[in-house]
Amino acid sequence: KAGVTQTPRYLIKTRGQQVTLSCSPISGHRSVSWYQQTPGQGLQFLFEYFSETQRNKGNFPGRFSGRQFSNSRSEMNVSTLELGDSALYLCASRRGSETQYFGPGTRLLVL
Amino acid sequence: QKEVEQDPGPLSVPEGAIVSLNCTYSNSAFQYFMWYRQYSRKGPELLMYTYSSGNKEDGRFTAQVDKSSKYISLFIRDSQPSDSATYLCAMKKGDFGNEKLTFGTGTRLTIIP
After folding, report:
1. Is B63 helix (H, G, I), strand (E, B) or coil?
2. Which residues of A fall within a CB distance of 8 Å from B34?
3. Three-class SS of residue A83?
4. Among A39, A75, A82, which residue's Cα sits nearest to residue A60?
5. pLDDT truncated to tens, each residue of chain B (113 aa)?
6. Is any Cβ of chain A less than 8 angstroms from the Cβ of B43?
7. Is B17 in CB contact (< 8 Å) with chain A?
8. Using alpha carbons only, how large is chain B's radius of gyration in Å?
9. What is the number of alpha carbons within 13 Å of residue B37 lying toward its C-beta?
């Protein structure tokens, strides 16, 4: 069974730009969560989507948003990029009450 | 104060040694506990998933949970160079529909051949 896939794997942007990251969950998984990983803060929860609805949200500014499509694929968007947004963005999927399985991440560098 | 505390290391041990990794937490609402392994430039990979206090064993790995002390551990027996990675503890609350994971900062482990 294919794992969680994320595209692109690497991205370089400049301050003020916006970016969209994509996540395809494991087949049959309807829940997708997003996390930001930085050396200083570790892994921090951004938000979770289930059946195209946001169910939980972390403590991030409104510049961070997401959505989920009917096929469970998810995108997250960051507008007006700041240097501090440089991070590894991880997507995780799960089915039901099972635990989460992570993708390889998208490494974003903001210059 | 962070809800989950984890010694960041780095931790270096010789091959074959027993490794002990630990996390403490402050929120008694955490009911489910996980250990993830993350290799460089990869996503976290689930190693162990536990709910109740006590020990859970899977091959060379043993997860231990002490809810009364708010303390969890991961033991690795007969450590191998391939175990060199960052180990992250994670936990979530028991309320239905809340799947947010709260992570420790991770411990970087190196097994020396």
Report:
1. strand
2. 99
3. helix
4. A82
5. 789 999 888 999 999 999 999 999 999 999 999 999 999 988 999 999 998 888 999 999 999 999 999 999 999 999 999 999 999 999 998 766 677 889 999 999 999 99
6. yes
7. no
8. 14
9. 13
